[in-house]
């Protein structure tokens, strides 16, 4: 029987890697829906090639061009945020959540509400709404499989183990584009420099977040929410080669590491074939050729985002939604050339501090409405912080 699959964020880096795997094995899969943003040509070409039932662009203004690009095919076209949620509601056996940012939350929740398997690349879903997401999955009998490479690695290293035997989880980080820069040069880092990753080929936003380690900060929170583990048991380790994706330390002192080439098709393919394993077209590591793997502790002065994540986990409530939204806004401003690389953390800290003084906002029930309010508040605060600096 073919597996009915949907890819939310099909035109992005994770989406295209998912399509690469599905296209190699078309007999096993039938594609329900593909969604994208501005890249209509890519979306339409993939929808045609994979004979998708539906293609959706997030931008309502692009419905016309999408219809044109799909003319003569059997693929339905739709556009806008509501249509994205509708796409996630279409019955499917497996749904990839690979939209970037908080925009992935509502389609992800809609997918969970149909009780399906959600392959979760969109870490923002768990950072902004962890308890709501886990509750929704449980209520509808849905399964969440982590696709973030570190979380997939932890998941695999824990197979057959009980969470009560886990003492610590170590998430590795490459250290990003500026790991070896002199600290005093960081304020001068350009957009082009921040958009280059030493090991992984990913979307621009997560690549910049890797340079600032906001990505790892999000991942620590993601790990806490997904594995339900105390924050002090989650560690971050710089491992410049990106061959070990995570390590799980057990109460008897044994540590299980997950190794592989830095290629997202491993974590995606693992989730796609779960609970079985299938051959994947990823490079096999030759450890003797590598010779050595290296590790070091992250420097808090270089990566202030890691401390901010600790504050968020200690504060709880809706502070994850504030953190993520302020980070998204700060990143928008950096990409637009309006703040320096090192100012992003200052903007996020300002938003978190402001949210802390509006405790009603942070301590409100973790519902979609309140998450959207906290998100909006945080973006406004990050923007206000920037305006203050420029005065
Ligand atoms: P990307 O920028 O390459 O692709 C993002 C996708 O989302 C595109 O299809 C785009 O059209 C769509 N999109 C963008 N804004 C949207 C909006 N407002 N509404 C609906 N759709 C929108 O991003 P990516 O690197 O593939 O990352 C996707 C997600 O996976 C992110 O949450 C990221 O943190 C996570 N992730 C990515 C990688 C990686 O290797 N790229 C690794 C781990 C986790
Ligand atoms: Mg990751």
UniProtKB/TrEMBL annotation:
Keywords: Isomerase, Isoprene biosynthesis, Magnesium, Manganese, Metal-binding, NADP, Oxidoreductase. Mn(2+) binds at residues 148, 150, 219. HAMAP family: DXP_reductoisom (MF_00183). Catalyzes the NADPH-dependent rearrangement and reduction of 1-deoxy-D-xylulose-5-phosphate (DXP) to 2-C-methyl-D-erythritol 4-phosphate (MEP). 1-deoxy-D-xylulose 5-phosphate binds at residues 123, 149-150, 174, 197, 210, 215-216, 219. PANTHER family: 1-DEOXY-D-XYLULOSE 5-PHOSPHATE REDUCTOISOMERASE (PTHR30525), 1-DEOXY-D-XYLULOSE 5-PHOSPHATE REDUCTOISOMERASE, CHLOROPLASTIC (PTHR30525:SF0). It is an enzyme of class 1 (oxidoreductase). Residues 259-379 form the DXP reductoisomerase C-terminal domain. Belongs to the DXR family. Its EC number is 1.1.1.267. NADPH binds at residues 11-14, 37, 39, 122, 124, 203. Pfam families: DXP_redisom_C, DXP_reductoisom, DXPR_C. Its cofactor is Mg(2+); Mn(2+). It comes from the Bacteria. Residues 144-227 form the 1-deoxy-D-xylulose 5-phosphate reductoisomerase C-terminal domain. One of its GO terms (biological process) is isopentenyl diphosphate biosynthetic process, methylerythritol 4-phosphate pathway involved in terpenoid biosynthetic process. One of its GO terms (molecular function) is manganese ion binding. This is 1-deoxy-D-xylulose 5-phosphate reductoisomerase. It catalyses: 2-C-methyl-D-erythritol 4-phosphate + NADP(+) = 1-deoxy-D-xylulose 5-phosphate + NADPH + H(+).
């Amino acid at each position: 029987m073919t597996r009915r699959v949907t890819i939310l964020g099909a035109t992005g880096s994770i989406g295209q890697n998912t399509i690469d795997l599905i296209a190699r094995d078309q007999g096993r899969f039938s594609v329900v829906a593909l969604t994208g943003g501005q890249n209509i040509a890519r979306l339409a070409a993939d929808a045609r090639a994979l004979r998708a039932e539906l293609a959706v662009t997030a931008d309502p203004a692009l419905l016309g061009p999408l219809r044109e690009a799909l003319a003569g095919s059997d693929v339905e076209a739709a556009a806008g945020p509501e249509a994205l949620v509708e796409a996630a509601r279409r019955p499917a056996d497996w749904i990839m959540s690979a939209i970037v940012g908080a925009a992935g939350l509502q389609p992800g929740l809609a997918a969970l509400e149909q009780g399906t398997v959600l392959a979760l690349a969109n870490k923002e879903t768990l950072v902004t709404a962890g308890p709501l997401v886990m509750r929704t999955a449980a209520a509808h009998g849905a399964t969440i499989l982590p696709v973030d490479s570190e979380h997939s690695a932890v998941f695999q290293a824990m197979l057959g183990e009980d969470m009560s035997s886990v003492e610590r989880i170590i998430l590795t980080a490459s250290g990003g584009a500026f790991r070896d820069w002199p600290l005093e040069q960081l304020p001068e880092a350009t957009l082009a420099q921040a958009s280059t990753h030493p090991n992984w080929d990913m979307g621009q936003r997560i690549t910049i977040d890797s340079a600032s380690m906001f990505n790892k900060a999000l991942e620590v929170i993601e790990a806490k929410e997904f594995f339900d583990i105390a924050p002090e048991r989650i560690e971050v380790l710089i491992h410049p080669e990106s061959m070990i994706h995570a390590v799980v330390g057990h109460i008897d002192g044994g540590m299980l590491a997950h190794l592989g080439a830095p290629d997202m098709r491993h974590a995606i393919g693992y989730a796609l074939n779960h609970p079985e394993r299938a051959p994947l077209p990823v490079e096999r590591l030759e450890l003797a050729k590598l010779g050595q793997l290296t590790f070091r502790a992250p420097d808090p002065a270089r990566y202030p985002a890691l401390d901010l994540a600790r504050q968020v986990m200690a504060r709880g409530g809706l502070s994850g939604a504030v953190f993520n939204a302020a980070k998204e806004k700060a990143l928008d401003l950096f990409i637009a050339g309006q703040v320096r690389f090192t100012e992003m953390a200052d903007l996020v800290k300002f938003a978190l501090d402001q949210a802390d003084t509006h405790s009603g906002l942070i301590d409100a029930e973790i519902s979609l409405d309140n998450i959207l309010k906290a998100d909006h508040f945080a973006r406004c605060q990050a923007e206000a912080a920037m305006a203050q600096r420029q005065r």
